[in-house]
Design goal:
By secondary structure, the chain is mainly β. The chain contains no helices and 11 strands. The strands form 2 sheets. Strands 2, 4, 5, 6, 9, 10 and 11 form a 7-stranded mixed beta sheet that branches. The protein is globular and about 40 Å long.
Length: about 130
């Protein structure tokens, strides 16, 4: 069993930065990938970014490319989402997720169905 927990959300002005962290615990040796998703009330959860454990390959949603960076701290079983140039449209509850399934095609990590383990979410609010 794996557990993940997010931290680092908050309120920021448009154009500002935030750093989200997601710490994995439990049977972390089974993790093959982790990702970030976000959701606003009344809308479906949408993919933000993901990282494959084996080779640290990454994939991003078009809306956050060039602004967000996902990375991994191997010593702490933690992934980081560094968010720059934030926009009001980035306002959402951000969820971290982990999977124990390896996919050779990195784009498979863009689907929420790939992930078995989910955090409770952390709110990010960007004021205009």
């Amino acid at each position: 069993q794996v557990s993940v927990a997010e931290s680092g959300g908050g309120l920021v002005q448009a154009g500002g930065s935030l750093r989200l962290s997601c710490a994995a615990s439990g049977r972390t040796v089974t993790i093959d990938g982790m990702g970030w998703f976000r959701q606003v009330p009344g809308k479906e959860r949408e993919f933000v970014a993901a990282l494959r454990w084996k080779d640290s390959a990454t994939t991003y949603a078009e809306s956050v490319k060039e602004r967000f960076t996902i990375s991994r701290d191997t010593t702490k079983n933690t992934i980081i989402l560094q968010m720059e140039s934030l926009k009001p449209d980035d306002t959402a509850n951000y969820y971290c997720a982990a999977t124990s399934v390896y996919y050779p095609i990195i784009d498979y990590y863009r689907s929420s169905r790939t992930y078995r383990y989910w955090g409770q979410g952390t709110q990010v609010t960007v004021n205009s």
